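EI: anyone free to look at a 260-residue chain?
SC: sure, send it
EI:
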Amino acid sequence: MTPNLQDIRIASLVPSLTELVVALGLGSRLVARTGFCIHPAPQLREVPKVGGTKDVNLAKLRQLAPTHVLVNVDENRLDIVPAVQAMGAKLLVTHPRAPDDNLALVAQLVEAFGHLPGVAERGEQLQRALRDELARNREFEASPETVLYLIWHDPWMTVARDTYISRMLATVHWHTVPELMGGDHGAARYPVVRGDEAWLASVRRVLLSSEPFRFEDAHAHAAQALCPQAVVQRVDGELVSWYGPRAVPGLRYLRELAAA
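SC: here you go
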């Protein structure tokens, strides 16, 4: 049974989803977020935090009595599922693994909340913007390039080719290494780079993401030593890895980087 309009209380445990909830006009329905849910800041200032994406404070979440809890396969722990179900809340599980999946993601939230005023219309507008940027990236012409996208240091960690990040980069013909698939979920999606792999010599561009690890100048020098033939540059990790509304400027951002 769908809760009454005044009863809907949303807890978002994923930064990208929190931003999407607000973009759909549901900010006033948010009763909980993680400490990593920082956009858009003005609308989230008064929304209570319930820990991080991996260490949700279940007791506090229960007290806030959400009717809907939004989670993601990659970003949240599996053991959150029975805990949320025990609260009586409806669990919305998301797992976008490619830029095009943003269209289905928006549709998923519209299906859940589209009966609320303005949500369906905002969802349609966002899907239209996504389609436009996806089409522009499909038309984008550039020489293919081998890139290493680093998300962590000590150890170095990168992304498998079936991750959202890798597939975002592929829209501008930047192909990540190593050439492996990580599967639907789990650590294999974010492999460790030892530093002695033969394919490192073929890398022509190293991208240092601004999140979840904040790389400094010393890390850039170390990355250069890792791939001596590569250009090393920092990139906005939010624009590359956040799905939902941030994918619109993210696709545009990658075109600008690749064209520079």
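EI: The radius of gyration is 19 Å.
SC: 👍
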